[in-house]
Amino acid sequence: MLKHLVKPELTVPAHIDFLDQLRDFVTRIGKIHGYSNKLINAFKLAVDEAATNIIRYAYPKKDGFITIRALVKADSLTLCFIDQGIHFNPNSVKNPDLNHYVDTGKKGGLGIFIIRRVMDEIEYRKVPEGNELRITKYCDSSYKRNFICAISTLTSSLRPKYFFRMIFFLRILHLS
User: Fold this and answer.
1) Is residue 3 assigned to a domain?
2) What is the tens place of the pLDDT at every residue in 10-31?
3) For a tag site, which of 33, 61, 148, 168 has the least CB within 10 Å?
4) How far apart are the C-alpha atoms of 42 and 151, rounded to whole Å?
């Protein structure tokens, strides 16, 4: 099932001076695997937000490291951020009231919100290596949606024929 999984990684000091290296890592992964500039830019934005949060909150008064690992699959790219600092589950953060931000001129505090907006999944878990934040973007999700919508517009006599092809197609994508 995971035979086509590629897992390059990079470890850098948890310091703002190393954000460029994390962005460059994601750019290289994206270009090697033929992702669009739009997708690469979404990941760079998410990397900036995730790494900045780790730097500020996981290691507030000590030095540490961030490991970024890319899990490349046929239909998705997942980035794993691993640190050994103070744990923080981003799923416990509620989406902000943006009107409040505008009304009060508040700055900062939108990192998790931004990651949620540009990624398809965000997960957090404790692992033997430390804290792991996973962000995932499905590369062909719009293609799948368009395929399903196209089938729904077919006449009732053609739907079964194409429905089974769609199931077969989605099953192949899931297994790769």
Assistant:
1) no
2) 999 999 999 999 999 999 999 9
3) 61
4) 30
